[in-house]
Amino acid sequence: MRLWVCIALLSTILCASADRPAIVRAGRNAWGAAVRAGHFVRDAAGGARDMFRAYKDMREANYKGADKYFHARGNYDAARRGPGGAWAARVISDARENWQSGVSGRGAEDTRADQEANAWGRRGGDPNRYRPAGLPRKY
């Protein structure tokens, strides 16, 4: 049920932000727009899975100082899927940081560093830049 609600909301957002409906555009096929929207949704779902996998690995590793690495890795993996994955990574990262900044008590500096690692991964930067020494190779 939640999946269908998310798909309906995403479709509404995508349609509302479009220049003109694909059916109106001259020389374009409406199915092409639907296919592109489908790819976007598929990439977004895959990106959300990538972000969740990085979060699970971070919790499992429980390694001090590794959070920036997992932030960068999750965003990197999600963004490699395409525009939908990058969008999902940005939305999830921003929501997480907005929520954590009010709850964690680690301060603005930690939030800024997390967002830097998020952006680095989304831009295609190597997540190993943030990898702490001694983190098991499994991750």
Automatic annotation (TrEMBL):
| Pfam families from the UniProt entry | SAA
Which residues, if any, are the signal sequence? 1-18
Quote the function comment for this protein: Major acute phase reactant. Apolipoprotein of the HDL complex.
Which UniProt keyword terms apply here? Answer: Acute phase, HDL, Signal
Q: What is this protein called?
A: Serum amyloid A protein
Concerning its family, UniProt says: Belongs to the SAA family.
Claim: Signal is one of the keywords in the record:
yes
* Annotated GO CC locations: high-density lipoprotein particle
Residue ranges for the region (Disordered) are 100-139
Q: What biological-process terms (Gene Ontology) are attached?
A: acute-phase response
Per the record, the domain of life is: Eukaryota
InterPro entries, A to Z:
Serum_amyloid_A, Synovial_Prolif_Regulator
Question: Where does this protein come from, organism-wise?
Answer: Pardalotus punctatus (spotted pardalote)
